[in-house]
């Protein structure tokens, strides 16, 4: 009887399943978020945009890892023991994958907004304008991500060979596994998309935002990046046009000498010098691993006994500054006073992890210790500021043969650094050089002015001086082994995880 009951039950079950339509098994999770049930009003688009900004500022990218392990390490601004500092990067390198993952997270979130905005029907003209600005910001952030990626993974510069491979161009939300199998695009194709996105952003973004939205990108941030992109493409005329639009805008100016250091200490945020900066704040509820609102940079670069304190300036860089006063803005000497965990001001002490004992100072607050602020720093990260634009503009003018004006824009930066008015000639600090000497002076000025701000690697790659530069750092090193230059050091390898999972992916040359 038990056996008969089991057979009857199996027969009934089979009959029910065979008699049902195919849709019977297509169970919908009503709690799952997707484009059909999430993007139902403009507030949801704005929420998704916040998530895209968050992808830029989080721990993978500018909140800690990418900044520390790539931007400081590759050009040897830091003395550290990772493979980037030793020029021994492989496709299995975890930090390479984190950078790739981080930037494609930005792209994926931006694509979600851009794609769903096409099918959303705004309820009013005001809502239409808001949606247009949200999409413009998403396109800006997508362009920003791809601009980093093409400079990291592109195997040659645009001007030398734009047909060389870079990264996959993902511009829509995949709906199948096959749609995820995208091959690497060429350097030229990626640059074309970057220009298209930044140009769309420039057209639709406002010139400024209200105080409660001050961290959003603006029309002039887009212009600044368009100038930079054209410079990297070696389109000097295009770069000059955009740089001059920024420089001639009276809303932007260099901060005075007495507020210069504050730019990096969280005390002069969203100043008139800033085109775009990432907003951080001390978060006592959530730490950086719990997606808190603070930056994790200071935890790594803190002065001794004030954090991990194991990523320090390379000794060669200390000598390279010479007597330039910006050394005090960029680094703590062992005798400089820095807050301890109990809030007292004590000498920083000598780091054991570098040759000179110095610690990084930019984005590393002097007045509080991150061990007492839930490991959070509230110092904003400056993505682009006017001093950077001035020096790029000087580079363009030098290329065009206008050395007098080029030297003036370089000297504006030098005067401010030495405590003088940036617009008044000062023979004691002004450089009076032309031609190649001026070009080299502008390059070295970029080193001193922008040290620790994430520009150096991209500069030496586009100037084609990587071998010359990295070979300077085989002396006065403490934690890293010998640096051996190879031509493939000009670009990152495609992560091994991507090669293994994407059937259309080809490895980077030489890796």
Q: Gap between N and C termini, in Å?
A: 68 Å
Q: Kindly report the spatial arrangement of strands forming the biggest sheet.
A: 1-3
Helix/strand/pairing category: mainly alpha
Q: What profile does the largest beta sheet have?
A: 2 strands, antiparallel
Helix content: 40-55%
Low-pLDDT residue intervals, each spanning 5 or more residues: 1-33
CATH architecture of the domain at 41-205 and 490-501: Alpha Horseshoe
Helical stretch tally:
21
Rg, please? Answer: 26 Å
H/E element order:
HHHHEHHHHHHHHEHEHHEEEEEHHHHHH
- The CATH class of the domain at 41-205 and 490-501 is identified as Mainly Alpha
What is the overall silhouette?
A: globular
How many beta-strand elements?
Answer: 8
State which percent range the strand residues make up: under 5%
Overall mean pLDDT score? 93
> According to CATH, what is the topology of the domain at 41-205 and 490-501?
Serine Threonine Protein Phosphatase 5, Tetratricopeptide repeat
């Amino acid at each position: 009887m038990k056996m008969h009951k089991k057979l009857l039950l199996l027969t009934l079950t089979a009959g029910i399943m065979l008699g049902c339509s195919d849709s019977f098994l297509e169970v919908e999770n009503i709690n799952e978020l997707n484009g059909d049930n999430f993007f139902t009003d403009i507030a949801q688009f704005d929420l998704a945009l916040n998530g895209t900004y968050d992808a830029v500022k989080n721990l993978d990218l500018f909140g800690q890892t990418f900044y520390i392990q790539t931007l400081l390490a590759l050009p040897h601004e830091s003395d550290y023991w990772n493979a980037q500092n030793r020029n021994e990067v492989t496709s299995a390198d975890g930090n390479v994958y984190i950078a790739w993952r981080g930037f494609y997270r930005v792209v994926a979130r931006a694509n979600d907004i851009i794609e769903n905005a096409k099918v959303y029907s705004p309820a009013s003209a005001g809502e239409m304008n808001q949606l247009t600005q949200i999409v413009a910001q998403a396109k800006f952030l997508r362009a920003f991500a791809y601009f980093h990626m093409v400079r990291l993974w592109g195997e040659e510069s645009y001007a030398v060979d734009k047909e060389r491979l870079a990264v996959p161009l993902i511009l829509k939300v995949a709906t199948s596994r096959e749609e995820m199998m995208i091959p690497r695009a060429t350097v030229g194709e990626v640059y074309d998309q970057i220009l298209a996105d930044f140009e769309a952003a420039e057209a639709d973004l406002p010139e400024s935002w209200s105080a409660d939205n001050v961290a959003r990108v603006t029309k002039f941030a887009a212009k600044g990046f368009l100038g930079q992109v054209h410079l990297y493409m070696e389109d000097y005329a295009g770069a000059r046009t955009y740089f001059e639009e920024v420089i001639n805008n009276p809303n932007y100016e260099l901060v005075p000498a007495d507020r210069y250091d504050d730019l990096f200490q969280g005390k002069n945020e969203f100043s008139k010098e800033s085109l775009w900066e990432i907003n951080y704040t001390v978060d006592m509820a959530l730490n950086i691993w719990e997606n808190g609102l603070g930056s994790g940079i200071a935890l790594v670069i803190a002065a001794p006994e004030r954090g991990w304190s194991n990523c320090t300036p390379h000794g060669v860089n200390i000598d390279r500054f010479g007597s330039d006063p910006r050394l005090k803005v960029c680094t703590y000497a062992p005798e400089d006073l820095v807050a301890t965990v109990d809030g007292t001001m004590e000498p920083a002490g000598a780091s054991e992890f570098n040759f000179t004992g110095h610690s990084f100072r930019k984005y590393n607050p002097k007045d509080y210790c991150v061990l007492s602020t839930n490991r959070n720093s509230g110092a904003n990260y400056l993505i682009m500021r006017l001093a950077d634009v001035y020096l790029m503009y000087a580079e363009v003018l030098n290329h065009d043969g206008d050395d007098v004006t080029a030297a003036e824009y370089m000297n504006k930066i030098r005067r401010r650094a030495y405590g003088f008015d940036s617009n008044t000639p000062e023979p004691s600090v002004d450089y009076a050089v032309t031609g190649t000497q001026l070009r080299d002076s502008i390059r070295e000025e970029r080193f001193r002015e922008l040290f620790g701000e994430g520009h150096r690697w991209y500069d030496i790659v586009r100037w084609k001086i990587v071998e010359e530069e990295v070979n300077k750092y085989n002396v006065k090193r403490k934690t890293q082994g010998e640096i051996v230059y190879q031509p493939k050091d000009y670009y990152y390898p495609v992560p091994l995880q991507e090669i293994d999972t994407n059937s259309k992916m080809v490895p980077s040359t030489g890796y």
